[in-house]
Amino acid sequence: MSWLRFFRRKRSDAELQGEMEAFLTEETADNEARGMSPDEARRQARVKLGNTQKVRESLWTQNSPPLLTNVARDMKYAFRTLWRTPGFSIIAIVVMALCIGAATSLFTIVRSVLLRPLPFKDPDRLVMVYEQHRGGQASASDADYRVVAPADFYDWRSKTRGFEDMAIMRYAGYNLTGERNELPEAVRAAAGSWNLFQLLGVTPALGRAFAESDDQRGATVVMLTWSVFQRRFAGDAGIVGRQIHLDGRPFTVVGVLPSWFNYPDAGIQLWIPYRADVKAEFLQHHDYHQSQVVARLRPDVSLASALAQVGAVQYQLHLQFPHEPVNEDVVSRSLNDDLAGNVKKPLNIMLCAVGCMLLIGCLNISNLLVARGAARQKEVAIRNALGAQRATLIREQMTESMLICAVGGLGGILLSIIATKFIAHRWKDLPTAQSIHLDGTVIAFACALMCVAALVAGLLPALSTTDKTMLRALQTSVRTGSSSVSRTALRKSLLTVEIGITVVLLVAAGLLLKSFMRLRSADVGCVTDNVLTLHYSLPEDKYDTPEKVNAFNDALLQRVRSMPGVRSAALGNTVPGAGYWGDFIFTVKEHPPLKTGEDLPDALSRWADPGYFSALGIPLINGRFFTSDERGARAYKVIVNQQLAQRYFHNEDPIGKHLLVPAHAHAGAPNDWDYEIVGVVGDTLYQVGKEAKAAMYFPMLGGDMSGGMLAVHTASEPLQFSVPVQKQIAALDPQLPVANIRTMNQIIDQSLINASLSATLVFAFALLSLLLASVGLYGVLSYLAAQRTSELGIRMALGAQRDQLLQLMLIDGLRPALFGLGLGLGLSLAAARIFQSMLFGTKPLDPAVLTGVVATLLVVAVLACLAPAWRASRLDPMQALRTE
Amino acid sequence: MGKDKPSDSEMLKGTLDMMILRTLVGGDAHGHTIAKVIERTSEDVLEVEQGSLYPALHRLEDRRWVSSYWGASENNRKAKFYKLTAEGRKQLARETSRWRQMTRAIGLVMGEERGA
User: What does the CA dihedral A815, A820, A825, A830 come to, rounded to 10 degrees?
Assistant: First the structure.
């Protein structure tokens, strides 16, 4: 490599000196052999060798390719310039580090969540197929993706040929109990049809995947994911073929999934065959909507036509079962979009915000560099007059911004390592949070960003300081005040753009923040402070009768309620704010039958013990709560919420009416679906940010719910009670694991994590941008004031008052701020429409937010302008006239 | 003294590299020997300027036509020896044939002039 010699110049020079020394000795020896005296011999040798310095120099030049020499000189020069003004350099570098760090972090996340292809075979041809209720969606963009009933799926798969294959999966949960006294553990599991892994193109790391013969009712085979295989079974390959106990029943491990496999999310620990653990009617009913369908497209069939075939089958089913909630249509989205789900929009918005911040950072540095360029105008002009080419001068100045961006970028990469970890850790909604890390591509991205930033920040000032007028700097006499009108205009317009973008960010942050506050303060409809919740699931083989289940639940409630510090305890299948969980269709027995085509009434299904409502502070509107003797055959009572009462019993009293719930009907027990309404309770939100829905509560003591969520309302910090409550459970059944120990506020916070993170991050970006913009404003005005010193002196000498000067300078500084504000408000109007759908209870033109932004910006602008304007107005006129 | 040498001892541009390579065909040599050999072989017509010899040697080394090592000279002194590489041999062949063409062409031109 010939250019490498550049870096070996020193060594090469040392070698040369050695060689020349050797030459001298050789030549002297030769001369002595010719009969010269030693002195004469040495002298003649030196004469022959000539000027050693010249030889060294010519070798040095030869070893210095002009390009590298120039770059090295530019670097040295830029480094010295930056070193001379450490304040400026540090600010610039910190700004760049923050901007590039934030941008890199977000890119890392966006890339692993939205851009990286899924690790499956031909992931582009994988789609998720959902059902869709006709008329339920306003436009194509907000299609509602309804989960699929297994019976529908089996018809799709057997009756259509559009997809290469279709597979179905649902979530499940098991108590994994130890063989040798290991602690019991509640694990999240998934059930997948036998062809799922084959369809995805996944081969197990150990053992085999499910075979068609495994996917039968009563099958007892299980596949482990890598994480549980390592964690609980110590990575022992001998586990394949052995048995593990799920809910107390033995299952044979047939395979272990590879370590990279974390579909549908990394929380899934086990897979069982889809049909293995369900009742027969589950597979035959068309209304058990709870599964997800993955399909692989045929290479020769378009998605639209494949979907049309499935849609036709689905519509047939809808017509065939008019009294069941069978959806009319189907809808699909790519597997990638499906996994990214609801984080796509917040991520994109954050990416935009960070892009704006980066642009502001660049503009700011550009602005500062223009100011410095003005200070160095004379130097540039002299060098130009001495023959420096414009390209050389531009290159030199670019090197400076390059250096700032390189150092800043390096800091940014370090910063983003921390930031990325923090965000990935906090944002539990990210589907691939485990695989988020910095790698070569991300670093390449950061480097590209650095170069772009350096170009944006450096080119404008470099061009402006070296334009045709640069020689004029030499001509300007001492007193010609503002020497470059165009440069000032350039700085002002840079500033206007900067402030404009800042306003957009501020508006976005304000709206997101307000929306988040609204969400956070939304009334869930019940007590949320000091409530501890936890899940447990009673294994069906040990608790095989309703009496046994009830005995456990009664004993648990009694024990917990008598604990000191516990105000009350509630037992249900879930608590408000914790999600959708499930709904049932129903009909009112006393009402005339529905006309065909009319929407079937449906309501959220909940289970509650008699003390549930009072413990959670859900008000009783009418009727009564359950009683503790409403169990077994006497448990056919239901409590509805206000919304259900108003919607389906307009002017009648719902108490004493009956709801028929087909989902509860069993063959041979025709009365199992007839529930008498005994009470009406207040509405609660199933999820913060969603409208309240009609709901019906069934008695928990009916004994048909094997698992439940215990909510404990405590007098003090609820998390302190988590261990004592678990001890009470362990005292009743030491084999029973509990899961999801959280306070209700934690549950709600977690459900709001998207809104909370996007609001906080965009707010942070906006604040930083505001800071940058105010620094920019301050800088511009200080510079203007310095330039106009002598002009101001003359004005004062001619009798201008200090107030007038202050006003003059303030207006000069505030003008770009006002222009920027106008520009920014205009841009915000357009931008707000984009993320309108992310706002809750907040209009895109929220007056409070807009006023707040305008006021904040004006205050900050005035403050930033005040200091330099004040200084200018306090000039001593004589001093001012003498400057320069 | 060396400064005022008559111009006929100055070397034609670009021929030094070729002559160095040619000298090294006879075996590895250090700078002093190379200079001496060129001078002797040219019957002292050509005088090798040290100012161009050493940069030329470094240049040839950088182009991988020669390699170098430190060894002991005939008088048992430390000296940097240069050795012709395979690549250098090829280069020498190219340069030699180019040189032959050139001298022949120049000879033709000069011969015609004298004849006219």
Answer: 150
Instruction: Supply A43's token pair.
Output: 């002298």
Contact state of B2 with A47 under an 8 Å Cβ cutoff: yes
What are the tens digits of pLDDT across the range A505-522?
889 888 888 888 888 888
Cα A195 from Cα A749, distance rounded (Å) = 38
Pick the residue of B9, B38, B62 with the most A CBs within 10 A to test the interface with A by mutation: B62
Give chain B positions within 8 Å (CB) of A16.
54, 58
Tokens of A464: 């402006």
pLDDT at B11: 60
Bridge-based pairing state of the strands A695-699 and A602-608: parallel
Helix axes A847-873, A485-520, angle to 10 degrees: 140
Which amino acid is residue A541, in one-letter code? D
User: Which of A116-120, A806-810, B82-86, B96-100 comes out lowest in average pLDDT?
Assistant: A116-120
Residue with tokens 């890392």: A108
Share of chain A above pLDDT 70, in %: 93
Q: Are A780 and A367 in contact (CB under 8 A)?
A: yes
Say how far apart CA A261 and CA A577 lie, in whole Å.
31
* A264 upstream amide cis, omega within 30 of 0: yes
What was the ipTM of the complex prediction?
0.79
- Do A508 and A831 form a contact (C-beta atoms < 8 A)? yes
pTM for the model: 0.72
Task: Please say whether the beta carbons of A502 and A769 come within 8 A.
Answer: yes
Give the gyration radius of chain A's Cα atoms: 38
Q: Using a CB-CB distance cutoff of 8 angstroms, which residues of chain B are in contact with residue A19?
A: 30-31, 54, 57, 79-80
- The predicted structure's pLDDT at residue A274: 92
Task: Tell me the shortest Cα–Cα distance from A7 to chain B, in angstroms.
Answer: 13
Q: How far apart are CA A222 and CA A213, in angstroms?
A: 13
Identify residue A553 by its one-letter amino acid code: N
* Residue A477: CB atoms within 10 Å: 7
Q: Quick check: A20 and B78 CB within 8 A?
A: no
pLDDT tens digits, residue range A108-125? 888 877 777 778 888 888
Say whether domain B11-115 belongs to CATH 1.10.10.10: yes
